[in-house]
Amino acid sequence: MSETQLPPPRRRINLNWLGLVPFALFVGLFLIAPTMKIVIGAFQRADGSFTFENIAGLFTPSIIASYWISIKISVASSAIGCLVGFLMASAMVLGGLPNTIRSPLMTFSGVASNFAGVPLAFAFLATLGPLGLVTMFLKTQFGINLRAMGFNILSFWGLTITYLFFQIPLMILIITPALDGLKREWREAASCLGATGTQYWRMVALPILFPTILGTFALLFANAFGAVATAIALTGSSLNIVPIMLFAQIRGDVLGNPHLGYAMAFGMILVTGIANVIYIWLRMRSERWLK
Fold it and tell me: Where do the TM regions start and end (predicted)?
């Protein structure tokens, strides 16, 4: 007697994927579409024809100088941000500070790491500008003239210090989980073998944390290199960095070339993209150690 054949099960539609539709639309409209417009525009003339002239224009001395200044500011703010953020996170996680400090510090870091643009520029101008609160306080109370000492908020170090406001908190947010991942057994084993605290950090902890630190440096570099609104709002045209030159080209002044601006933006995408790939790769390596 033949067996009764059951009808094939009906395939059910997984409606959970509908929750990703708003995110997918947002990414497509505000990330992928503008990026593709920049990439295509970098290889077009004003009439829409294909050309490499815009890419070749990136190698003019003024544009190369602007990229170099942006790279130096990004490296300086990333290095200082990594160092200060690492010391603060280490003091919080491993330094025996009260647990009540951790929650406010992490909350502030989450807010400050996303605080940029015009509000941040105004805050630093009101604090360290020519007539800023700290500038005038030091001058009137202690006779310290920051301007006479060569400090100018509208300069290389002025912009670097401003970037530290969001670079240091970002470092704290990323390095804290890595510090939490350092197992107590590793410290105890090093102590049992006669290692000092310095030897433990030099031979055990820092080698484990190094991929995370280096990866975070790459992320902070990309974060600073791509910061546009803060640089424009703070320095205007007084500092010749890539975002400001790009803004002048895209705006279409008399000497502006929007498609050269697209090429400059394309170059920024390449630089930040490489930095983010390095960060992701190093983050994956560090996570294998800390599991």
Answer: 20-43, 49-69, 76-97, 117-138, 150-179, 199-221, 228-248, 260-282
